[in-house]
Amino acid sequence: MNRRTIPSLQMSVYGQDRLRSEGFVIMPLEFSMRQEPQRLIPHFHDFFQIFLITGAGRLMHDFRDHDVTGLTLFFLSPGQVHTIRPAPQTQGTVASFTQEFFDHHAPPPSMLFDLPFFFSSGVTPWLTVSPDEAARITALFAELQQEYDSAQSGVQEVLRATLRILFIQAGRLYAQKHSVKETSRAALLARQFHLSLEHHFREWQTLAPYARELGITVNHLNDVIHQETGHAAGELIHQRRLLDAKRLLLHSDLSVSEIVYQTGFQDPSYFTRFFRRHAGQTPGEFRDAIREKYQPEAT
How do residues 25-64 score in pLDDT, each as one tens digit? Predict the structure, then answer.
């Protein structure tokens, strides 16, 4: 049987091949949607994106739907399943970049860890931009597009610098509209844990390997995560594994037994108990209910 898993899409082929190979592409949103209709179905990728959306549309981000109008910023981290359902007259710009491109030779930790809208699946990934704020944000996207299209000498550094300015401006606006704590050592550790979780959740199901990678004890990791999120670190591991299973139940034709092993579980009966305990339904019940809601949009 031909199995369809969640689509993992690469960066769009647009404009400068050299910059794309280095990890950066920026392009009009409407061109992306018209030329690559597969982006209209839920998918994920292994790079970051920031969208500037002008007009109405519906955003889907890991089982959360959000209707937008006016000017909206939409932030995506690697691995997050998403799609945009634009209205006919919706326009915008989408910038895609890898962490390697953004950081280049900058020493760790990455500035990306300090931004409130990346990495964690629990944050609000969209931001409404008021008319008073629109000119500055749209000008930064226009500068990114112009630099990318012209590709003059030093373009990579101009793109990185403009992205940093854009993220600082967006972070200020985000802080005005959402509750954001100042970045502390604990907050940085929490973000590093979330990033490590994104990389290893299928293979590391206990706290010990995460604590080793971060250079702290298990107890300290638990204390920090509870302080920053209100949840135990182990609970976040469970929720991330649950999200992985939900994605496959919705977006793949794999059987429940196949999903058990793909998601790192060893025992199907334990997987069913785990899923029911955390989702309130069996895997089969969840698949039936969620496909009725989303599958028509993915045809």
Answer: 999 999 998 888 889 888 888 899 999 999 999 999 987 8
* Closest among 291, 294, 247, 242 to 265, alpha carbons compared: 242
Does residue 50 contact residue 94 with C-beta atoms inside 8 Å?
yes
* pTM, rounded to two decimals: 0.76
Domains of the chain: 17-177 (2.60.120.280), 185-298 (1.10.10.60)
* 2 pLDDT tier (thresholds 50, 70, 90): very low
